[in-house]
Batch of 2 targets.
Target 1
Amino acid sequence: GVVTDASTGDPITAAVRLNDIGYDIYTDPAVGDYYRILLPGTYTLTFTAPGYQTEVIENIVVTSGSPTVVNVQMTSIGTLTEIFFDDFSSDLGWTGYGGAGEWTRGNPMGGPGDDTHGEPDPTQDHTAGADNNVIGNDLTAADGDYEANLTQIYWITSPVMDCSDVIQVQLDYWRWLGVERNLYDHAYLQAYNGTSWITRWENGSTTIDEDSWNQHLIDVSAQADGNPQFRIRFGIGMTDNGWQYCGWNIDDVRVYGYQSGLPAPASVEVQLSGTNSLSISWDPVPGATHYKLYRSTSPDFEIGPATLLIEVESPQTEYIDSAVLDLTQKAFYKVTARN
Ligand SMILES: [Ca+2]
Ligand SMILES: [Ca+2]
Ligand SMILES: [Ca+2]
């Protein structure tokens, strides 16, 4: 069969699960087709793909001699949207700096540590740029290791990321981590589900002694999807009295997901309204309970908290932007429908 996008007809890279034998095959990304040789019988297939509703097709009868064709159209669940990004060039509101956990935002100095164990801190952040900033435990040149004898977990906690209308949320960050095995020292990553903090990663029974930047991807959908109070936090401690390592170095933290399955509002128009205001209007979208209006001075901008101008309740489909005081500058708008 062939797996395509229900609205565009484009091929989809999908996982096709043969439920009855618990085995996944994948479509060819170029054309969306998949093949599987099976014994005659009745089967159930489950089709999954990032950004699409899962499709389950039951009672597929396979007979001897002639192929059974199962073509599937999958429905998009929305637009891939960046919810949060931090390269630590500026303070976005993480809390937990200082103290015995020595959480710091700044330049890592390649500190060799206070004992002979473990690789040093990095000297560069993950993405070369003007600031060279990361967050980490003790970024100093003179030391660089986390402290011995930490009697609790010291957390650094992200600002709130509003994932109220986002699904399939993913976390992606870069780390340079040194921590002794969990018989002695501990490092954690937790995600807040709106009620409690859930451990999504912790060090295991092998010492981690990284000497390069490594990407770490975590599916946080169980904690973040639909959660207006989503946050993450990194922890160091408890530690024992010997053998310290460089601890966490963290950079380029990104959280993204699929926002709203509603179609984009059509006929978005911007008109002069009075002398120093613009009227932005759009067509109503059936099923929308509200609209989010975004503004930027550049045309190809990301929608997200940084560019959100206002949220208006349906049935309102117009907004007067009187904050554009300098009409010599271009303003670009995007509108999304939400429910
Ligand atoms: Ca950085
Ligand atoms: Ca360090
Ligand atoms: Ca130790």
Target 2
Amino acid sequence: MTGEREVIADGDSRAQAFLDGVGLRPVYPTPESRQALEGFDESLPRHGLGDQATIKLLDDLGSPGTVATNGGRYFGFVVGASLPVAAAAERLLLAWDNGAAAYVTGPSAAAIEKVAARWMLEILDLPSESAVGFTTSASTGTLIALIAARRTLLGRLGWDLDRRGTSGAPDIRIVTSDVAHISVTKAVRVLGFGLENVATVPSDEFGRLDASKLPAIDDHTIVVLQSGEVNTGESDPFRDVIAAAQAVGAWVHVDGAFGLWARASKHRAETDGVDAADSWTVDGHKWLNTPYDSAMVITRRSEDLVAAMQSDSPYAPSSPDAQKNLSLDFSRRARGVAIWAALRSLGRDGVAELIERTVDLAAVVADGLRDAGYSVLNRVVLNQVLFASDDDEGTLRILHAVQDSGKFWFGQTLWRGKVALRISVSSWRTTRDDVDQLIVMLALLRQSDS
Ligand SMILES: Cc1ncc(COP(=O)(O)O)c(C=O)c1O
């Protein structure tokens, strides 16, 4: 077996070589590279095949089979790259190998995540008394928030959920918009609310929940709003809906996977009134450009989250703000450290600059697409550009030509019954030149397609 130092240095130098060349890679792996992934399909070896040979295979076959999301020309989903400081922090965490359940398992992690939590509330301007659980994804954040919401509402109705379970409990109804993210539907299904107990509110032409069509809500209701609709980037009318919900004792959760970051920039008016909600989820791995497994669930009343996620035991007592009492995991990576590193390195100004620069680039893309004769279907209030060519077939031809080129990548969606294309500018690496080249390619494709 090779020594630890050599193996880790080998991994590091391969990682560096990958990063050095990420801008030159096809943005989506070639058919040959994808075919070569079959090379991983070995039988489980009886005798170990060695550290360096294993890392070599991972790099030789795996690296060419990756999507260049860590480069500047990937515009798919709402995917950011990794800030170097956040990636470096993750590498140090790997060396520490501390479980970050609580102070006892990793004092450094506990201290840093506490600071990261405070800074997150400051930069998003959410109530300072809120609790922040660092979790894997916005999907998990919404799941945890709905767990806390149901437990709290039922408690107020005199039902002890922990003791009595859901059977026979008062019905809790979910109210959300018809363009809520699929992670909301998933959380509703997984938690056993029942899709029949969801009241779906129509959205307006921009993709915002239409507050005038809100059904009757009461203290048995969880209203799920969103900041950053996945196609248009729009946010729901928080001020009106939250005031109506608060008046009757409903719970309001906000899925702000990417849109909440607008609050850290001059675009904060997009999220006007969102700070009055009861809970929020937001990702680091989208717009803050931290590596994956980076998200947060936040509740206004910390006791709601702590009571729902409580996992103290005689062998593992801890403080209420231990991360195992704020999220689903017990053993866990110190996910908040990469967020801390990104916030410390960028500062408030750097985060604002990242958000504002990518919003500006999205506006440049939208202008270029209009000039090239495409229909831009959204107002481009944040970093999302939704557009189409003349008909569904033409739109798909453009999409496939871009994807097959290996020069750029973005995806498709259905918007108001028609195929549309989504460009998301979320990466710190994306430059004006990347965006100009994208526009040139799309303009040429449209010319040759018409
Ligand atoms: C609005 C919205 N909510 C939730 C999610 C899910 O986030 P995650 O991938 O972190 O689970 C996304 C991801 O695209 C999103 O855009």
